[in-house]
Write a structure and sequence with these properties.
The chain is mainly alpha-helical. It has a domain of about 40 residues: Histone, subunit A. Helix content is about 45%, strand content about 5%. Strands 1-2 form a two-stranded antiparallel sheet. The longest helix is centred in the first third of the chain and has 22 residues. The protein starts with 5 loop residues before the first helix and ends in a 7-residue tail after the last strand.
Length: about 100
């Protein structure tokens, strides 16, 4: 396992475009070192006879079928009239991309 150094933390911060104080650099050096040491410790656990898990429970999400429903013309007009901006009978929204 590679040693976590202040130089490595500074390099990672630069790549992530983060500005860290010297106290933060020191803290992250210690914290990341402790996290990786714990992961290294977990790697030594014998899991040979443990079945892989694909999820935490057997619960399933209950969803309704996605079925298109006709909208009555009066309801459609109410929706369009209530929308802040329309154009040619369509709902107009601000552009996402410029």
């Amino acid at each position: 396992m590679a040693e976590i150094t202040k130089a490595l933390i500074k390099k990672l911060a630069k790549l992530a475009r983060l500005e860290l104080s010297s106290a933060e650099t020191e803290k992250f050096t210690t914290d990341l070192g402790n996290i990786l040491a714990h992961v290294h410790e977990l790697e030594s656990v014998d899991t040979k006879n443990v079945a892989p898990m694909t999820g935490g429970t057997m619960l399933k999400n209950v969803m309704r079928d996605d079925v298109a429903e006709a909208v009555q013309p009066k309801e459609q007009k109410n929706i369009i009239d209530a929308f802040p901006d329309t154009q040619g009978g369509y709902l107009k929204t601000p552009a996402v991309f410029e």
